[in-house]
Amino acid sequence: MSFYGDNLRKYIKENGMSVRKLSIETEINRTLLQKYLSGERLPKNMEEVRHISRCLMLSPAKQDNLTECYNRSRYGEKRYEGFLMIQDMLKGLTDFRMHPVMLQKEGSRSEKGGVEKEESSGRTGKMGVEKEKNNDRMKESYACIGALEVESALRHILKKQSCMGKNWKLQLIAQPESGNISRTILSVCAGQNVEVEQIICLDEETAEGNQNIKIVYNLLPMLFGSIRYQSLFYYDKKDAHINSMSLLPVLVLAGDTAMICNSKMDEALVFCNTESVNFCRRQYQQMKQRTSLLTPCFRDDVTEWMTFLQNFMTDLAVAEICIGSIPCVTYSLDESILKEILCLGEEGNQCLMDIFAKNRETFLQASDKKAPVNIFEESGLRRFMETGRSDEYPDDWYTPISPSNRLRMLEAMIAMAENRYMDYVMVNPENLPLDPNLLIYVNENVVFQYHQDNQLSQYFSVNERGVRQSFQEFVGFAQENGWLCDTAATIRRMKEILAEYREKFEIM
User: Fold this and answer.
1) Of 35, 458, 482, 508, which is least packed with CB atoms within 10 Å of its CB?
2) Is there a domain that residue 82 lies in?
3) Which tens digits make up the pLDDT trace of 163-174?
4) Helices (H) and strands (E) in the chain — how many of each?
5) 110 domain residue, yes or no
6) In this structure, are residues 348 and 294 in contact, taking their beta carbons and an 8 Å threshold?
C-alpha cells in the first residue's frame, strides 16, 4: 500500500492543481511525480516531502499527515509504529509514572473518614453481603465473565497476598499488552514486598519490522514500577500463537490461588484448591525451563550497583548509542576530578576509579571505530552546568562537581566531538523531549536506567537483537525527520554554552 502516493493524489485533487502544474512549481520531473502518485517511487528524502507540501500550500495538519504517510510508506507501518513507541519511551511514559503507594490494609481509614475492617461480623449492608459472598466463593474454584469481573478477581487475589505483610512471589505467563494486567498489578502491588516473574513470547517473525520493541514498550511500566521484576522469554510466531483462538493463554500464580484467562482477559477461571493450583505451578515450571532471561532483576543497593558497573560498563564504554537528558560525562572525568568528588569511602572510591580507568581504556581502544552517538538535550547540559550533577550516578556517591571542573569537562566533550571520538547530538525538544530520569545505552544489549528522587537507579538490560535493531534504526529516522540537530550545529551550541558559563562563573 502506498500511503504517501494515495494521500498526495487526494491533496492534488482537493487543491485543483494538475500534476503538470505541480511539476513546474516543485521543479520535479513530471514522470517522477507520476511514480510518486502510483507508489512506484518515494521522494528521495524528507526535505523533498516538505518541499512538495509547501508548493501545494497545505495546512499544517495536512503537511503533518503527508509526512506521516511518507514515513509509513518508507519504513513500513510496523517499523514506523515501533519508532513512535521509542519516542514515547524517551518522553517517559507519563501515563504509568507513580510513586510507591502502600495499600490500605485492615483497619485503614475509609474514604468517608471512618475506620472499616476487611471482615466485620456485624455488617449487614450491601457491601458486607458482597464481601461475605466473595469470601465464600474464594474457598472454591469459580469462573469470571467480563473484563470488569476478571480485573476485580485479580485485584482480590493480589490484595489478599499483599495484606499478609510478608515477602511473596507473583508468577505470570502473559503478554504485557494482555488486558490491563500491568496497570492492575502496579496499582495494587507498587511498594509492596513482592517479586514479579513474567514469561512472555517474543515474535520470531521480523520481516515486516520488528515487533518485539512493542513488547518491551509495554513492559516498561512493570520494569520502572516500584516492584522487584524480571521477565523471561521464548520465541514463537506470536500472532499465530497468542490470539482469540488460543484457549486461556494467561496464567497468574499468587500464593494459594491460580487464575487462567483468555488473551483479552475478559473471561477467566480461578482455582483455590491445592490440587489445581499445584497443577498450574507444574505447568509454569515446565515452561520456565524452556525460556531465557530477558530482563535481569536488580536489587537497588550499592553492592549490586557496583557489580553492574563491573560486569556491564566496560562493554558500554563503546556503546553505539547513549540517550539521556544530560550528555554522557563519564569520558570527560579524569582521575583528578574523581579524587576530588567521590565519597564512597577509601575502598569504594578506589573500586569506582578502577572501573573508570578500565572504561576509559576500552573507549580509547575503540576510537578507530565509528564514533558512538550521544543524544541529549540542551536543557540537560545546562542542568549539569548549573548543578554539577549527572544522571549517570547516584547523588550520594559524589559531591557536586565544581564550576571550574564543569568547564573543563565541557571543553573535553567538545574536543571529543571535534575529533570524532564521540558524536554528540542535541534533540529538538519540540519533537523529542527526553525524560530527565531516563538513560538508555545501546550496544550488544539495550540497557535502560531510571532514577527517581536522586536515589539509586533502577535498571534492566534487554538482550534481544530485534529491540537493539529498532533503536539503531530509530536514530536515522529521528535525524531524517528533524528531531535531532546535526553534529556541527550541536558543537556550535556547546561552544556557545561554554562561553556563556565561563562568563557566568567568572562573575561568581
Assistant:
1) 508
2) no
3) 887 889 999 999
4) 20, 14
5) no
6) no
| Whether residue 132 is found in the same domain as residue 220 | yes
State the Cα–Cα distance between residues 381 and 396, nearest whole angstrom.
Answer: 20
Number of independent structural domains in the chain: 3
Domain containing 455 equals 302-507
Per residue in 51-73, pLDDT (tens digit) is 999 999 999 999 999 999 999 99
In this prediction, residue 243 carries a pLDDT of: 61
User: In angstroms, how far is CA 394 from the centroid of its own chain?
Assistant: 20
pLDDT-based confidence at residue 293 (cuts at 50, 70, 90): confident
Average pLDDT over residues 223-229: 76
Q: In Å, what is the CA distance from 199 to each residue of 218, 219, 347, 359, 434?
A: 14, 11, 39, 34, 30
Same domain, 386 and 282: no
17 and 164 inside one domain: no
Q: What is the CA radius of gyration of the chain?
A: 27
Pairwise CA distance, residues 275 & 365, whole Å = 59
Comparing 69-83, 99-113, 129-143, 200-214, the range with the smallest average pLDDT is 99-113
270: cell is: 480461578
Lookup: cell for 11: 491533496
Same domain, 38 and 129: no
